[in-house]
Amino acid sequence: MRQKSESGFHHLYDHYSGALYGVILRIVQSKEYTEEIIQDVFMKIWNSIHQYDTAKGRFYTWMINIARNTAIDYLKSKSFQNELKNQSLPDFVYNNAELSTTNQSDFIGFKNVLETLDSDKQELIELAYYQGYTQSEISEKLNMPLGTVKTKMRNALMRLKDLLKDYQ
Fold first, then answer.
1. pLDDT by residue (tens digit) across 35-59?
2. CA separation for the pair 135, 120 (Å, rounded)
3. How far apart are the first and last CA of the chain?
4. What DSSP string runs through 89-105?
5. Is the distance from CB of 18 to CB of 103 less than 8 angstroms?
6. Mean pLDDT throughout 2-23?
7. What gap in Å lies between CA 16 and CA 68, rounded to an integer?
């Protein structure tokens, strides 16, 4: 990958595109937008591979963060917001059952792991990582002090880390 070989890119895409697609789809809830974003994500990964540091975490986690941040940035972009305003109602209302992530994109069973958390922790993870809310926005939405949100989010992430340790 760091040598920018074509076979490295193919390996990266073949092994990680399904998982990253699922993460993006869960956030933007549109197959059309997900297909656009996944291209951007792989270009960002390819162009910034030199920034990946094995001492800071796993490669997969690094890529998921790029995918998540790219999807959230896309949702918050002015062009996307303007496009939403210009869509007719039937195009804007999505069928959640059709667009929900499939078992292919949830290959480690993350949904099942997430469901083992307390409901308040599940909600925080859902809001922050799948809907793109900041901790301040979560605080406002849930009418909860920011410090409480931060503490609960940290506890939720530590619990998830513990639950996911077997998947490394």
1. 989 999 999 999 999 999 889 888 9
2. 14
3. 21
4. HHHHS--HHHHSPPTTT
5. no
6. 87
7. 14
